[in-house]
Amino acid sequence: MWCSNLFRRIVMISALLAMQTAAMAAFGLPGGIKVPDVPKIGGGISIPGLDGLLGNDEAPISTGFADAVTEIPFLDTYEPEQPLPLEAVDKDSSGGWSLRPGTYSFDAQSYCLHAGTHGPSKGEGYLYAPLRGSKADIIRAVVEQSANHPEIRETHVQQLIWGIEARTKLSEMPQEIRTAASSLLTEKQIASLDKGTFGVIPNNQLAPYLSKVTEPVRKALEFENAFRAKLCNPKLPFGELEKVAVLTGDLPRDKNARVVPSMRWSYNPDGYFIRFKPHWYAATYFEVSCPDRHSIVRDDRGRITEISDSQENIIRIAYDDGIAPTMITGDDAVKAYAISSIKFTSSVTRNDIPVEREWKNTGWVLVGLPNGKGTPEQGGGRISGLKGRYDEAVSLGKEFADTTGKARRSLDLKKPSPFAAANMTDMIDLSHLNAAISEAVAADAKDDAVVAWQAQEIIGAWQYVFKRSVNGDQVLVSGLPQALIGLGVIGKTLKGDDVTPLNPSKNVATPSETGRQRLEQSSRSTSDNSATGSENNDNWFMAWVRSKMQDWGFDVSSEGTSNGAQNGDSRGHARRTTTSSSSKRGGHSKFMSLSFTANTSSAPSQSPWDMVTVTVSHVDGQTVVGVRFTDTKSGRIVHLGKARAIGESANVRNSALDLAVKNAGL
User: Cα–Cα distance between 605 and 107 in angstroms, integer?
Assistant: First the structure.
C-alpha cells in the first residue's frame, strides 16, 4: 500500500496514514488520495492508540467488489424448483451445515461490514466474495459462534463487528458488548483485538492534524473518530448508532460501477453455488445449490445420449439420423443435430410408480467446442437459428474459461486441469442441451413440478462438471478412452463428494457500488428474532399438516407445536417450521416456505418419506403452491406436486394446496 512507504520515513506520518487507510476501508473513502506531510505538533502532544497501528497496513476487513470473481451469468435463468429450507436440516458442530446434493433456501441474519455507507437497494445484485482482512478470522469467529448463542442479541453482534472494524478498544466498549465478546471469542482472540486499536481521540488533539490534510481525508477521520465515540457510549441506543452506520435515501449512481442483475449466482470454492437477495442489511435471503454426482454418456459421434445422477434420475436423448447434421463453415468440430426424442425417468413417484415423460421430434442441439472462427448459416427446417446458437456457444466458452480460471486461482491452483478441454466441451454441450430441452418441455413444466424439477437435471450436471473443473481433476467427463474409465481415473467418487459444507460466515454478499455495504452472512435465521417479514402466524399450515399426515398414517399430535420449535414426542410433531418472504425477479414474486418433519417413530413403516415442504408464491395475481415430500435419511425427493389458481386469498391458497397434493400422487 502507498502508505507503507511513508511509514518507513516518519512514525508520525505513518500513524496518520494508517488512520486514513482504516477510514478508507471501513467508511468508503476512495483510494489513492494524496495526504500532505503533517508537521510535528509542539508540546509533545500524542494521540492515544496510534502506536497500535504501526506496521499494520491491512484494513480489518478489506473485502471488496474486486474479490467477487466467480459470478456465473449463464445461470441467470436458473430458478430452483422448491428449494428446501435450511431450518429443516440439522446444523453441524461448526454451526453450519453438511448438505446432501440439492437446493436450499435461507433467510439469514446478516451483518454490515461497511459502516457509514448506504444499505441495500431494491433490484441491485450482490455477488459472493470471501471474507478478507487483518481481522477477518476474528469477525468470522464472532458470526460463527453467534449461532451457538441465541441469547446474544443480533444488535450486540453487529455492534461488536463495527467496533472491530473501526479499530475500537474492546475495553472501552459498553459492558454488554464486552460480555458478548467473552462468549463469542477465545481469550487469545480477545487479547489480539487491542493490537492496532484506537481510543477515542479528543478533538483538541486531533484538530491540528486534520488542519493539514485534504478535505476527504479530514471528513473520513472525523467520521471514524466520532463513530468510535458512539460505539463506546453505553447510553446511546442502538437505533441512533444505526442511523450513523447505515445510511438511507438515494445514493447517486457511480458511473464507473458495473451493473449486476439481482440474484445472480456465484460459485463458492467450497463446492456450491450461491445467490443473495438482501431484505435489509440485517436480513439477507440466500439460495444454495449443491450439485450431485452426474454421469454423462456420449455416442460414437460425441453426442450426449444420457445424463443421470446418484438418485437415478435419468434424461435420455435420441437423435434423428434421417436428417443430416448441419455443418459450420470454418469450424469442423461443431455440428447441429435434430433430436428425435427426449425421455425423463424420475426417482420421484406418483401412485408408487416412477414418473416417466417423453417428447418426440422436437428441437435440435449444437454439439462440439467452437473455435470462434465459424460462419454458420441460419439453417432451416428443424434446425433454425443456428447462427445465434453458435455465437452463444462462443460467448459461453469464453465465460466458462474465465470463471473456472478465476475460481481455480482463488484456490491457488495455477495450472489448468489436465481434463480442461473435455470439461469445457461438456459444459458447452450441456448448456446447449439445456436450451433445447427447456424449450421442448416448457409447456408441461409450467404446471408439472416433476417435469420442471427434472428439466433442471442438466443444470445440475453442468454445475457438477464446473465444480470438478475448479476443485478437482478427477471429474466425470465423457468422450475419454475406456481404458481410463476402467482404471477408475474417470468417474471416481472423491472423499466428501456427496456432502457439501456450508458455512455462511464464509460468504460476503458484495455490491458493485463502493457506496453500499458488504453483508456478512450467518447461520442464524431471521425467524430467531421473530421477524420473518412474512406471515406471523402459520397455524393454517400446522392444521393442514396434522390433518394430512394423520390421513397418511402418521401419529401426529395436536399438542406442543410452535413456530421454530423442536419437540421430542414420539408421536410426531412439527420439528422445525420456517416462514420466508422474499422479493424475487425484481419484486414480481413473493413466496413463503414452510416445512414439517415427523419423528421417525411416528411414521408408518411403509412410508418412504418423513418431511413435507410447502412453498406458496404470489405471481401476477396468481397463487402458485408447491409441495415436496422428502426422505430425510437419504435426501431423496419422493413426491413433488404443483398447482396454481387465480387470486391470493387464503381460500385460493388452500384449494391450490389440495390440488398440489393430488398432483403429487397422494
Answer: 34
DSSP calls for 237-296: -HHHHHHHHEE-S-----TTSPP--TT--EEETTTEEEEEEEEETTEEEEEEEEPPPEEE
Task: Return the axis-axis angle of helices 386-410 and 420-445, rounded to nearest 10°.
Answer: 120
Are the CB atoms for 375 and 388 separated by under 8 Å? no
What pLDDT, on a 0 to 100 scale, did the predictor assign at position 483? Answer: 37
CB atoms within 10 A of CB 418: 9
Rounded to 5°, the CA angle 333-339-344 comes to: 120
Distance in angstroms (rounded) separating the CA atoms of residues 313 and 45 = 74
463-502 tens-digit pLDDT: 999 998 998 743 333 344 433 333 333 333 333 357 899 9
User: Is 175 within 8 Å of 234 (Cβ atoms)?
Assistant: yes
In this prediction, residue 197 carries a pLDDT of 77
Cα(135)–Cα(189) distance, rounded to whole angstroms? 10
3-class SS of residue 434? helix
> Could you give the CA distance from residue 178 to residue 170 in angstroms, rounded to a whole number?
7
The answer to whether 631 and 640 have CB atoms below 8 angstroms apart is no
Non-local (6+) Cβ contacts of 530 within 8 A are none
Residue 504 DSSP code: G
Q: pLDDT digit string (tens) for 595-649?
A: 777 665 566 666 788 788 888 888 788 888 889 988 887 888 999 999 999 998 8
Which has the closest alpha carbon to 228: 286, 181, 282, 174?
A: 174
